[in-house]
Amino acid sequence: MSRLNPQMHPLLNSPVLEALLAKNIYTVLNFIETEIKHIVAITNLQYKEVLGIRKHLINKYAAVTRDGVSYYNEIITKSALFSTGIKRLDSILQGGFLTGNIYEICGLPASGKTQLNLTLVRNVAQNSILNVYYIDTKNDFSGRKLKAVLDASKTDEEHVKQIMSQILVKKVDTVHDLINTLYEIKNLLYTKTIKLRLIIIDSLPPLFYSISDFSKRYGLITTMVNVMHVLAKEFHTAIVVTNVLTTSYENTSTEDISGKIGLGKYWYNVPNTRLTIKKFENSSECSIIIAKSNRLLEGAQCNVKITDAGII
Amino acid sequence: MNSQIESGLELVMRLTQRPNLENINPILIPKGPYPNEFVEIVGAPGTGKTTVLMDFIVRTLLPLNLLGKNCGTVLIDTDHKFDMLRLITMLECELKKLNVAKSCIHSAIMKCLKNLTVLNCYDNEQLQMSFYNLEQILIENSDIGLIAVDCIPAYYWQYRNLSDNHISVYGYTKQMLQCLEQCVRNNNIVVAYTRNAEADVKEIKLGETIHRILLKKEAGSFNAFVNDKLVPYTLGKTISWL
């Protein structure tokens, strides 16, 4: 909520603001919601002046108006499709991860989620000069593991250095840390300090476990999701997050996963595409299924293999 | 007698001729939607609410000779499930179905997109400010016939936490709709919105008529309910009403 302040409009000087605050009009929204003639009575400004302030505030705080054609052109010129480097996965994703979308990879513990992320990071850094932002919440991002993936794929030493420098890793410990980091990224993109089109968050739910008040937790998730949407839509990045599935022994049906996904009901509906990854017993193979998508075919499935050189 | 003073602006708004959306989807809404009416699309996640809304948008944008309404649409996107490329695909499918020559398809799509206005919102304040901004947008474009919102309760949790006000989802949704209703009142426009909820959710009543489209997924097949009438549909590249 934006609080009214003198920088917003020259007519909002301190006597005017004090008069408004005395009538419980604190925020921009309070101001707009109040009838113009009331504001006139409270502030002694002229009707026309209040109308001017109103128009100015609405223009500044409402969503940007875009017409369909320029919006389409913006999407066409700024979108990017990242191949995951895994042929079978690319084919069910119709080419790879597309900017403007939030993807979720979920699976049971140790089913290959992080390995999938590393493969993706390697592939994007190897084939482009773009940065990749890797947000690590579990404190287990390992440069060695990534180097192992690179070494196994026979990349020469110089190139390995180059690739490693493209990857920005940030460790976060709390939800607030995470939200600040996302705002920081927004700032970096706004000032064009980094060339970033892919953000990975591994993994989302542990941060939220510590917040027991569920209304507060949902509020924080919404705040986080709002920044994610800005990054995805306005700055044309693809966001990949990992989430956990929990199994319950009583309910063994595999059809309904809504109750088993970490972070609860609100988050359930957020990702544009949800992939579930499942490891086969006693084998290094796993299957990846599109569990939900607004764009791709739901239920599409592929089998991949986990190796030292990442997932193939 | 109940007399009311109206400003010149309100008079202009009330008298502006806007495109008529009657019979936009006769299967779902046999009578209407008439000017100033609302269309609610409600259902659980994964039942295709956004797709149904996009279907309305497609029908509004297409030219009259191609079974459309040839008028403008304002899309307020809060949920970010709307996909521009998918809208293009849906338009393309419709045009192909109507045997439009291949060479004309691109220019026809561009013509449709010209009539679309997109407002991307990222928090509650911006959403409400955008509602207030509609007045200006509607005055500037007299050919806008539909306002589409996907979806209304998106910022519920944020609002509830910031306002320290233990409002229910139902209460919040109603409050937002009343704000929207207030902003577009007497503009002769149709508002279509999605609402993410289980199908048995309590109905919301506004001053204007609401056509309620209830989406349900039952045993793997999709059904829409309008006033207890059942319309099965399938989701693919586009939506097909059976």
UniProtKB/TrEMBL annotation, chain A:
Compartment(s) of residence: Nucleus
GO molecular function: ATP binding; ATP-dependent DNA damage sensor activity; four-way junction DNA binding; single-stranded DNA binding
Record-linked InterPro entries: HRR_RAD51_Paralog, P-loop_NTPase, Rad51_C, Rad51D_C, RAD51D_N, RecA_ATP-bd
CDD domains according to UniProt: Rad51D
Major localization listed first in the record, in broad terms: nucleus
Coiled-coil portions: none
Domain (RecA family profile): residue spans on this chain: 78-245
PROSITE patterns linked to this entry: RECA_2
A Gene Ontology BP annotation from the UniProt entry: DNA strand invasion
Highest taxon in the source lineage: Eukaryota
GO cellular component labels: microtubule organizing center; Rad51B-Rad51C-Rad51D-XRCC2 complex; replication fork
Keyword annotations from UniProtKB, A to Z: ATP-binding, DNA damage, DNA recombination, DNA repair, DNA-binding, Nucleotide-binding, Nucleus
Pfam families on file: Rad51 (PF08423), RAD51D_N (PF21794)
PANTHER family recorded: DNA REPAIR PROTEIN RAD51 HOMOLOG 4 (PTHR46457:SF1)
Family note: Belongs to the RecA family. RAD51 subfamily.
Record-given protein name: RecA family profile 1 domain-containing protein
Annotated source species: Aquatica leii
From TrEMBL, chain B:
Domain RecA family profile: 13-201
Annotated PROSITE patterns: RECA_2
Family matches, as Gene3D superfamilies: P-loop containing nucleotide triphosphate hydrolases (3.40.50.300)
Entry-linked InterPro entries: P-loop_NTPase, Rad51_C, RecA_ATP-bd, XRCC2
Entry GO CC: centrosome; Rad51B-Rad51C-Rad51D-XRCC2 complex; replication fork
GO molecular function, one term: four-way junction DNA binding
Record field: transmembrane: none
Domain of life: Eukaryota
GO annotation, biological process: DNA strand invasion; double-strand break repair via homologous recombination
Protein name: RecA family profile 1 domain-containing protein
